[in-house]
Automatic annotation (TrEMBL):
Cross-referenced PANTHER family: 2-OXOGLUTARATE (2OG) AND FE(II)-DEPENDENT OXYGENASE SUPERFAMILY PROTEIN-RELATED
Family, as annotated: Belongs to the iron/ascorbate-dependent oxidoreductase family.
This protein's name: Fe2OG dioxygenase domain-containing protein
Gene Ontology terms, MF aspect: metal ion binding; oxidoreductase activity
Gene3D superfamilies: B-lactam Antibiotic, Isopenicillin N Synthase, Chain
One family name in Pfam for this protein: DIOX_N
Length: 277
């Protein structure tokens, strides 16, 4: 399989006093969002120390025996988690997770604002609709798999949010659809990955692309990643930023229900097509 280098964007350009340099950075983010639906960012102002500490806590979580996590109702009874000695939530550094989530939220809102600005809209619009109770972190572990060529770590899908920020290790496994074929994303230890979600594609009237992607496990080593999803409140309307609109207006809650119904009925997510005008 072909391996690709995602567009790499230095976010220090957004803080440049030279307006031309700042606008060039905005244009690079918008171009990558339109042509790839994915890009990488460096100089994002999330410290390496925080990233390393968050990964340490993630590994502790996944190494906890399942029975112990279930008995102490860790993470709201979610089955998606995992430290050999932890017996209650107090033994995990929730402060690190809260700090990490806050940093990812700040970055996600910055990028969403830049993409709105590029289409002539005010940068604070997404902050008005995005709700801390519906934005979330997902901690992923993909165990080593000897038959990895035949097994999905995560099935092909698009994300149902505005945008996603991914912090991954160097194992690799993320693949995306580019020019009608799957390409493998080469890990970059210095960068975070950003991808456009369905809601931003709908809001932008298909200017920005929510691209299908998947994860394939590694034969020899396990893979860790953490994704932050920027989501609006469930009653927020997702309208188009320009007319004529390609999609009818819908709420985030309506969209989630449609996705759940499609998965239950068809076994897979359909996405935005039911909302086309």
């Amino acid at each position: 399989m072909d391996e690709c280098q995602l567009p790499l964007i230095d976010l220090s350009g957004l803080r440049n006093q030279d307006e031309g340099e700042r606008l060039a950075c905005v244009a690079a983010i918008a171009r990558a969002s339109s042509e790839w639906g994915f890009f990488q960012v460096v100089n994002h102002e999330i410290s390496n120390e925080l990233l390393v500490e968050m990964r340490r806590e993630q590994v502790k979580l996944f190494e906890t025996p399942f029975e112990r996590k279930a008995s102490c109702k860790l993470l709201n009874n979610s089955y998606r988690w995992g430290t050999p000695t932890a017996t209650c939530p107090r033994q995990f550094s929730w402060k690190v997770m809260e700090e990490f989530a806050a940093a990812m939220s700040k970055l996600a809102r910055l990028l969403a604002g830049v993409l709105a600005e590029n289409l002539g809209h005010r940068r604070g619009g997404f902050e008005d609709s995005c709700d801390a109770s519906t934005c979330f972190l997902r901690l992923n572990r993909y165990p080593a798999c000897p038959v990895s060529a035949d097994i999905f770590g995560l099935v092909p899908h698009t994300d149902s949010d505005f945008l996603t920020i991914l912090y991954q290790d160097q194992v690799g496994g993320l693949q995306l659809m580019k020019d009608s074929k799957w390409v493998a994303v080469k890990p970059n230890e210095d960068a975070l990955i950003v991808n456009i979600g369905d809601l931003l594609q709908a809001w932008s009237n298909d200017v920005y692309k929510s691209v299908e992607h998947k994860v394939m496990p590694n034969r020899k080593g396990e893979r860790y990643s953490i994704a932050y999803f920027l989501c609006p409140s469930y009653d927020s309307f997702i309208g188009s930023c320009r007319e004529p609109s390609i999609y009818r207006k819908f709420t985030f809650g309506e969209y989630r229900r449609q996705v759940q119904e499609d998965v239950k009925k068809l076994g897979h997510k359909v996405g935005l097509s039911p909302f086309l005008l």
